[in-house]
Structure formats: C-alpha cells, structure tokens
Amino acid sequence: MRKWFSIVLLSLLAFSWLSFPTETSAAKPKVYVVPVEDTIEKGLHAFLQRALNVAEENGAEAVIFHINTLGGAVDAAWDIGGLFANSNVKTVAWIDKQALSAGAYIALNTSEIYMSPGSTMGSAAIIDHEGNAADKKAQSSWLASMKSAAELNNRDPKYAEAMANVNNTLTDLGAGQGKLLTLTNKQAADVGYSEGTVDNLDGVLKHLGLENADVRSIDESFAEKAARFLTNPVVIPILLTIGALGLVIELFSPGFGLPGLVGLTSLGLFFYGHLVAGLTGYETVILFFLGLALLGLELFLPGGIVGALGCLSIIGSLFIAGDNNTHMAVSILIALVVSLSVSILMVKVFGKQMKFLRRMILTDSTSAESGYVSNVNRLDLIGREGVTLTPLRPSGIALIDDERVDVVSEGSFIAKDIPVKVVKTEGSRIVVRQVEKKEG
C-alpha cells in the first residue's frame, strides 16, 4: 500500500513540475521594439512616451528604437531626446537606412547605437520654416544640444558638432569646407558612434546578449498615426486655412451647408490631433467655441467689444494648442490672408454679401419696376393759371382749375386773390408766378 502511495505522490510532483514554468522561464528578459519613422514631430513624442511607459511597467531589459527618418521639428527632437536620456529602461538605437538631422540627435541620446549596412547618420543643420539657415542664437543652442547628447553616452562631441556645423574641420570624413558631417555605418563604428554593424534585429539582440529575450513590438495606434499627421508643421497651416476658408464661404451662402461643415471639420481635426498628441487639453477647445459664441453675439450687441473678445479667444486657443508660437503665428497669418482675399473676391467679383449683413442693410431699391411709386410730378399744371387763396410767403394755397394746390412763389410775396401762373413743377413742388394785369 505504501509503495502505491509513493508512486502516486511522485507522479503528482512530476506533473506539477511539468505544468508550471521554471524560474529560468519566468525570468526571461523582455525587449520592446519601437519604430521611429517618417517626419519627427510632436505627435511622435506622445507615441514614444507611451512605448517607454509600457516597457517600464513590464520590467523590460531594453527598448530598441528602429530608426529611419530624414529628421523633422527641432523642438520635438529636443523633447524626445530628453525622454530617452531620462528613461529608466536601457535605450538602443537601430539605424536602418538613415538617421539624419533631428533623427541623428535622437539616436545620440540612446545608450547604444547599431547601424545596418549602407545606413548613414548626421547632416543635422538647423533650418527655419522657409528652409533657410536658422539665426545664430538657434544654431548655437542646437550645437550645444548635439554635443551634450554625444557626451551623455561617452561619445566624442566633435563629430556631433560637425554634423550640425558647416564650419567644421573634419575633412578626412568627407566633411569640412562648408559640408556637414554624415557618417556611414563603417565610419560611425570607427569613431565610436556605433557599437556595431548589424544585418537585422537578431544582430542587435546578439550584440546586446539578449538572443533569447521575449521580443515584443509596440506599434502606433490609429489615433497616434492621425495625431502625427495632423500635428505635422506642413499640415497645420493647411488645416487652419481650410477651416477659415470654409467658414468665410459659409457666411456668403444661404443656410448652413457644406462649406461650413468642411470648415468646422478642419478645425476639429486640428484640435483632435493636438489633443491626442498630448499638446493641449479640452480647455483650448472650450475657449475656441467660446470665441465663436462671442462672435455670434456681436451681431446683436453694439460696441464691438464682444466681437474683439471673440477674436482674441479664437486666436488664443490656437496659440495655446500649438507648442511653437512662431509657426502658429505664420499658420494663422496664412489662413487670414487667404480668407480675406476670398472675402474680397466674393464681394467685388461675384457681388455676394455676408448673411448677417443682409439683416442689417436694406438692399431693396424703390424703383417703379418693383412696384414703388414716387410723388406724382404735376407736369400737367405747367402753363395753367389760377388765383391765390392764401398769401404766398412764399408758400401757400392756390385754386387752379377748381383744384386746391399747395404752391410756392418764385421768391417774392404774393397777396391773396392774386392771379398766378404755374411756371415749373419739381415732384410735389409747384412754382407759380404772379400774372401781370393786361392794360386796355
């Protein structure tokens, strides 16, 4: 009996051991792979922040950022660089094809950099929204940021500076003489800017000693992809222009139709993108619609103060939603110029009038064709004679062909019961002259 009991007990222990993961399996390290692609803008920052939060919450060993970008907004790159530098999880850049401009700055803020064959990193000059070189103050700040990012992870800062400064002296690497430094994967490894050249993700994991790691991917959600597109510096002025244009055309159209719907939708997309990207809150949306309400009240209230407050509320909400005041000012200016030009075109060329002005301005003409009749012009009285019933000083009453008529003299006083003759009529004004008595 004891023998069978021992056999059953050993079987249960074996089954339990096979059914539950071992400590080695439970301790399998986690690695997250996150794409950094296309233009770098504020919407990307929100996505990367979420990815790092997920990695930290799940105790990840490392986060590998799969980078392939031509760059983008400097302010967005600054924020993302700070996000990487302050992360509690090890950050690794895997440059696949290219990490240029702001992309190079982001890569420099990671703990380790790996590059695929044929990939490049560098060419990080800072330019303004018109494609020209930024002012000296902005360039100096950007150069300092590039050097600090390199020094943060024990990389020689002179190469980072050469990536952003055309006045560098690194002629042996194809830079200098007015050229920015762009490192190939081999050059990056030679100067210590890359830990190695890898063919694929497995190569990165091998270099990190995480070949057996639990590799997980974090991709952008639809909302995050939409936010990245809607917060793109090129898209913002387009959205604001379409929004302003739609509302302006709606003011010239009867009722509420497609132009107004398109305008409100465009402005709604602007705020939606900034909300999802974490750049603003619902208070800006409330402020915007408060401005629209105040502009509506201006139609019924005198003074112009309410309308001015409405305009300030709308413009203020746009500035609060956007993180770059200069770019937002340019975008708003473009929208205003286009909408004002269309307004002038509608009035001058097409003869249109805004709906709210139709209620304030009388546009009907009192023409005979419309059924209106002005004062009767008594041309039939010219040349006829009568007698004054009252003195004319110079106006009074005369009896002409048995009809009492209001008349005026040519300027002189005419007494009562004096013969007069009609010499002119001007609408309701009938002018008479005293008739000289005939002699003999």
Q: What features would you describe in this structure?
A:
- Helix 4 (74-85) runs parallel beside helix 6 and helix 11 (235-251) runs parallel beside helix 15.
- This protein is α/β, with parallel strands linked by helices and 440 residues long.
- Helix 3 (42-57) links the parallel strand 1 (30-37) and strand 2 (62-69).
- It has 16 helices and 13 strands.
- The strands form two sheets. Strands 1, 2, 3, 4, 5, 6, 7 and 8 form an eight-stranded mixed β-sheet that branches. The chain has a five-stranded mixed barrel with strand order 9-10-11-13-12.
**Terminal residue distance:** 175 Å
Shape estimate: rod-shaped
What is the chain-wise order of helices and strands? HHEHEHEHEEHHEHEHEHHHHHHHEEEEE
**How many β strands by DSSP?**
13
Q: Count up the helices.
A: 16
| Poorly predicted residue ranges | 17-25, 355-362
Cα-based radius of gyration, to the nearest Å: 42 Å
Estimate the helix proportion, in percent: 40-55%
Task: List strands and helices in order, with pairings.
Elements (H helix, E strand, L loop, with lengths): L1 H18 L3 H4 L3 E8 L4 H16 L4 E8 L4 H12 L4 E11 L1 H7 L3 E4 L4 E3 L13 H17 L4 H8 L17 E3 H6 L5 E2 L3 H8 L5 E4 L4 H9 L4 H17 L6 H19 L5 H16 L7 H17 L3 H24 L6 H4 L26 E4 L6 E6 L2 E7 L9 E8 L2 E6 L6
Parallel strand pairs: 1-2, 1-8, 2-3, 3-4, 3-5, 4-7, 11-13
Antiparallel strand pairs: 5-6, 9-10, 9-12, 10-11, 12-13
